[in-house]
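Quick entry between incubations.
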Amino acid sequence: MVEVLRPGTLAEALAFRKETAALPFAGGTDVMVRERGYTGTGPRIDRPVLFLDAVGELRSITLGDFAAGAILSIGAAATLTEIVNDERVPEPLRESCRLIAAPGLRNRATMAGNICNASPAGDSIPPLYVLDARVVLAREGEVRTVPIAEFLTGPGRTTLRDDEIMIAIQVPLDGDAAGDGAASADDVSAGASDEGSAAAGGSAASNGSTTSDGKTPRTVRYYRKVGTRRANALSKLSGAGIARIDGRGVVTDFRLALGAVGPVVVRVPAAERLVAGQRASEIEPEPIVAAYTPHIRPITDQRSTAEYRSHVARNLVREFISRIQET
Amino acid sequence: MKLEFTVNGEARSIEVDPLRRLLDILRDDLALTGTKEGCGEGECGACSVIVEGKLVNSCLVPATQCAGAEVLTVDGLSESERGEMITESFALMHGAQCGFCTPGMVMAAEALLREQNDPDEEAVREGLAGNICRCTGYDMIVDAIQDAAKRGKGLW
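Done. Structure below.
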């Protein structure tokens, strides 16, 4: 019988983790499947297990004001259901969580687990890249904050140390992002599109506020998950984007992240800079697609082929640009 | 470990392995065999139960996380007025074919109706998104849940 602990406080959790290098277990929806035993038996876990679901400090979603702006801190034990139900969570992150699995799984699964599992197909990860999110890692006597792109180093690989646990995910809410986060669900044209069985869901949302000169700066938020079913589908690939367009129709900020097209999520700063500064209506998609192409290097596995993923990933670039141009 | 929790309103105390699945505790230790095992990996929803008011897949919940929890299974639900209403609607609308997915569907329906007592078809389908019917009788299941909502007005 393995040693387990389900503490109520972070201090107890950190002490146990340091002492035993226990497996951190939040919702368990990945661990229980990965370590599954025969029918009628429990999971085959041969190391101590640290249950995090009862740690009060890790359960909340809180808004903080920092010098750099407002930051939403999502506790590592907050469930996906809690995240989806929280209107402060900015798009496209909230939408990506809404499309993960199904209600019963979202009631247990956590975003921290989705990150630490470090699957190239983890659905919350591309949105975290475009939101420039950071993860907060703690061990006894030390807390460090790491950009999401530095935390994830490859399939199943992270920079989490043996005595650390993830305690929160920090999502910056700059001015209009906070506005979007607080906007009603009506702003998101959510749900699956019917472009064949391969499209599991897509959405774009935009909002803006009128400036003194009467023009309306706007933010376009994009998310598309490509999978075989609307529910319980592991993604073949996914894309998340944010673009800001100023009152003159010029794109001032363009961010796009592609999931499951390489060992880690792909963002291409050079391609993003190509778009920034252009008038939205005048963007030529193909040079942008070409800038992404060398970075789209997927593999063939049981869910999809490299060829399909490459083809559709380039289509996601085109789709995001067309969303910028149509709104 | 000694697991103390409440199942279908009854306080239970049993000696179990801390990683034993809630599904096995219910079926094998407590002889509550209404809950079924389909895939054993959270894909099919046949093992759905309600823990602390939330729908969960009991195949993915280890004993340790059940300490002190309140668990409702189809065995308990079916003896309540709501459970009887859902059961009756499944019969009226032909919502059960082979019946293996039905306990999970009934639990998902209960969880859904607690949140939305008059769900439209899309909401029902979203509420059932984690439950697979091998007979593919989804339309009748959706009808059954909407029928339960209609006839059972005031129960949720």
